């Protein structure tokens, strides 16, 4: 019996870590049934683990894992004498649609391929240049430049691989439009040779020209209206009397995260989002005040930015990495420790029982949306920062961060690195590293909104 119990626990841990690559075992039904005479507390633990697996399967749209985990939940419920009718109804619906799985997978693959296509987010016109911002980094072979000329007109043409999701009104001698399904065409027209040039920097293309040949008259911006309607509230952690963690050489968390937050805001505004900060200077704001501010602004997402700290000096050198958290009852001692470090004395006045009751009433839809946002932002950070730095991926985790509790929208907390680690502490105050980090966070936000239109 002990061997069977151990087998299931090992299996659950393995499944949680490798969810995308490993399907739920077909023998889970027999394994759970065999636990009828096992210790009740162990069966309860397996029941809750299966619930987490089921939620993760919904997030990943993994129908096979949903069916297998529901079967396990039904069997556990029978043993524990818990009502399982809602699981039976869900199982029947899943089985009814199971025959359509191959078609659904093909559609999903097509959508995923579409998401990777470059999309123009915004275009800004100046007196002697145009700046185009995209949702992904641009490669040199994504842009093809050529010149067309005859006796009376010169045309500089830029064909860019991508999709234009909004209209840009023709401006004097400049046109930007969707040439075909895969190409955005920018055309500069003049009766004189234009001799334009272009440069690529990450997600930005800058096209320069001589002002006397191409007239734009005034600065003008065009942005993707879908993005322009989205509101992002960025919360630089701590501030004022609350210094946050104090790390290597006395460096303070509150100062590092404020600089990073401002750079995230800069990128998001360039992409067309409306951005607000809970603080833009060294001031103290209560945890409740932060999410209250986001709710007043009717934010679509809330991002709290922090720096982590190792618990003891002996771990300063060995503990490092970046993690992104979303609000949920903590699943591990490590998550609880990190949450306790960031939570203030004010919320600690709430008793343990009161906290658990509150957490149990969290909106499951918001938890799933927050998890999706956390996944996209974590991926964005890793992709951006790893271009130049070797950083540890501490993953996407759930924890009871009370700064996220009052948010009425998807909310995440980013631990940008360990301020107690000498290497990471110095990076957190390095402008270049800060820029890569902010760029990655902003890209994660773009990816989240692209996928969840």
CATH class of the largest domain: Alpha Beta
Percentage of residues in DSSP E strands: 15-25%
The CATH architecture of the largest domain is 3-Layer(aba) Sandwich
Give the oligomeric state: single chain
CATH topology group of the largest domain: Aminopeptidase
Rg measurement, Å: 26 Å
Query: What is the total tally of β strands?
Result: 16
On the 0-100 scale, what is the average pLDDT?
Answer: 79
Q: What is the assigned CATH homologous superfamily of the largest domain?
A: Zn-dependent exopeptidases
Shape: globular
**Structure class:** alpha/beta
**Helical segment count:** 15
Structurally, the number of domains stands at 3
Describe what this molecule looks like in 3D:
Helix content is 42%, strand content 21%. The protein is built from 15 helices and 16 strands. The relative contact order is 0.10. The protein is globular and about 90 Å long. It has 3 domains: 2-112; 116-223, Immunoglobulin-like; 226-451, Zn-dependent exopeptidases (Aminopeptidase). α4 packs antiparallel against α5 and α13 (364-385) packs across α15 (431-451). The strands form 3 sheets. Strands 1, 2, 5, 8, 9 and 10 form a 6-stranded mixed sheet that branches. By secondary structure, it is of the alpha/beta class. It has helices at residues 2-17, 28-33, 40-59, 63-80, 85-96, 101-115, 225-228, 253-270, 287-296, 333-342, 345-348, 352-360, 364-385, 422-428, 431-451, and strands at 119-125, 129-134, 143-149, 154-161, 163-164, 174-178, 183-190, 197-201, 204-208, 220-223, 231-236, 274-277, 301-308, 322-327, 393-399, 411-418. The model is unreliable at 9-30, 110-115 and 345-355 (pLDDT under 50).
């Amino acid at each position: 019996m002990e061997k069977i119990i151990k087998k299931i626990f090992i299996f659950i841990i393995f499944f949680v870590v490798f969810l995308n690559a490993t399907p739920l075992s077909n023998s889970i039904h027999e394994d759970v049934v065999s636990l009828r005479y096992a210790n009740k507390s162990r069966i309860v633990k397996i029941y809750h683990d299966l619930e987490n697996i089921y939620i993760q399967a919904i997030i990943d749209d993994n129908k096979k894992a949903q069916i297998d985990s529901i079967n396990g939940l039904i069997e556990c419920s029978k043993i524990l004498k818990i009502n399982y009718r809602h699981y039976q109804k869900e199982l029947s619906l899943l089985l009814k649609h199971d025959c359509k799985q191959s078609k659904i997978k093909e559609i999903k693959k097509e959508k995923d391929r579409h998401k990777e296509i470059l999309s123009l987010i915004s275009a800004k016109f100046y007196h002697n240049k145009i700046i185009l911002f995209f949702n992904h980094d641009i490669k040199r072979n994504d842009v093809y430049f050529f010149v067309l000329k005859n006796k009376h007109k010169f045309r500089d043409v830029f064909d860019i691989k991508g999709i234009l999701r909004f209209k840009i009104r023709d401006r004097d001698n400049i046109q930007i439009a969707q040439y075909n399904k895969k190409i955005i065409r920018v055309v500069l027209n003049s009766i004189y040779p234009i001799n334009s040039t272009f440069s690529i920097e990450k997600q930005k293309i800058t096209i320069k020209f001589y002002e006397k040949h191409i007239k734009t008259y005034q600065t003008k911006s065009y942005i993707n209206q879908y993005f322009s309607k989205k509101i992002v509230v960025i919360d630089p952690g701590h501030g004022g009397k609350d210094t946050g963690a104090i790390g290597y050489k006395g460096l303070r968390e509150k100062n590092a995260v404020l600089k990073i937050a401002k750079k995230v805001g800069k990128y998001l505004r360039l992409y067309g989002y409306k951005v607000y900060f809970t603080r833009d200077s060294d001031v103290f704001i209560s945890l409740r005040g932060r999410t209250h501010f986001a709710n007043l602004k009717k934010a679509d997402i809330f991002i709290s930015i922090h720096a982590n700290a190792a618990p003891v000096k002996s771990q300063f050198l060995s503990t490092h990495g970046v993690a992104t958290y979303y609000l949920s009852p903590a699943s591990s001692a490590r998550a609880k420790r990190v949450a306790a470090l960031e939570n203030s004395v004010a919320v600690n006045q709430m008793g343990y029982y009161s906290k658990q009751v509150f957490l149990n009433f969290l909106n499951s839809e918001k938890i799933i949306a927050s998890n999706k946002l956390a996944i996209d932002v974590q991926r964005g950070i890793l992709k951006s920062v790893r271009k130049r730095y070797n950083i540890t991926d501490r993953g996407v985790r759930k924890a009871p961060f009370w700064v996220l509790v009052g948010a009425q929208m998807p909310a995440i907390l980013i631990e940008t690195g360990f301020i107690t680690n000498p290497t990471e502490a110095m990076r957190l105050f390095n402008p270049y590293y800060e820029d890569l980090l902010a760029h990655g966070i902003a890209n994660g936000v773009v990816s989240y909104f692209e996928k969840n239109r």
